[in-house]
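Predict the structure of Flagellin.
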Amino acid sequence: MASIMTNASALTALQSLNSTNKNLETTQSRISTGYRVAEASDNAAYWSIATTMRSDNKALSTVQDTLGLGASKVDTAYTGMNKAIETVNEIKNKLVSAAGSTEADKAKIQTEIAALQSQLQAYATSATFSGSNYLSVDTATHAVAGTHDGASVVSSFNRAADGSVSLSKIAIDVESIKLYDAATTDADDAGILEAIRDSTGARDAAATVAVAGTYLATDGFAVSTLTVVGFNDEQIGQMLGVVEGALNEMTDAATTLGAAKQRIDLQKEFTQSLMDSIDRGVGQLVDADMNKES
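Done. Here is the predicted structure for Flagellin.
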C-alpha cells in the first residue's frame, strides 16, 4: 500500500544505517582498546573468566617474587655452608699436624684452630638474607620463619575446580642444616658444629665437654670447642672422628640446600610458563582480531 504517513523504505534504510553505525562503533571500540570483550556487557561469561584469570596471574607474579627471595635465602645459606666445610677441613688438617707434636707446638696449632672456630661462627652469623638465617638460629624464639623446625618458601598459588584457592610451599629443613642453635639443650638438638660427638662422629646426647688433660673415651667434643692442648695422639685421633662426623652432616646439609635451590629454580621457571599460558588463554577469550576488525 502507498502511505503518506509511513515510508517503509526509509524505515528500513534507517534501521540499516543504525546497525551499520553500531557495528562501526563496536569495531572502533575494539580497535582502540584491543579487546573484543572489554567489559561485562560485551560477554558476561568471558569477561568473568578473564577477570578471574588476570587476578590469578597477579598472584602468580607475587609468587615469582617470593620464589626469587627464597632462592636468594637458600643460596646464601649454601654459600655459607660451603665456606664452613672448607674451614672444618682446615681444622681437620690442623689435628693431623698436632699428632706427634710437642705441647709447645700444640699450643701454636690450637691458636690456629681457635681462629678457624671463630671464623666458622662468623660464616654462620653472616649467612643472612632479608632477615633469615638458616645456619645460625635460635629455635627457642622461633627466629627461623616463625617455626621451630624449619622454614618454607611459597611456591605456587592454586585454584581448585570449586573456585577455592590455596598456597603450596617448599619446606626448608633448618633442623638438619643449622650449624649453631642458641637454644641448644642437648646433642640431638644442637647445631652441627656445636653437637658433642664420640670418636665415631656420632652425636652423643649423654656426653659432657671434656676438660683438657682429662679426656676419656666416653667423653665427647664439638667442632666448635675442641682443643688439642693437653691431649695425646690417640685422643687427637678420636677428635678426627668427631670432625669427620660433622663433615658428613655438613655435606648432607649442603646437598639438602642444593636440592632446595634446584627445586625453587624449577618452580620459578614453571610459574613463568604458567603465567604466559594464562595470558595466552585470556587473549583467546577477550582479545580483538585486528585483521578481522580492520
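The helical segments are 8-33, 44-98, 103-126, 174-177, 233-286, 290-293.
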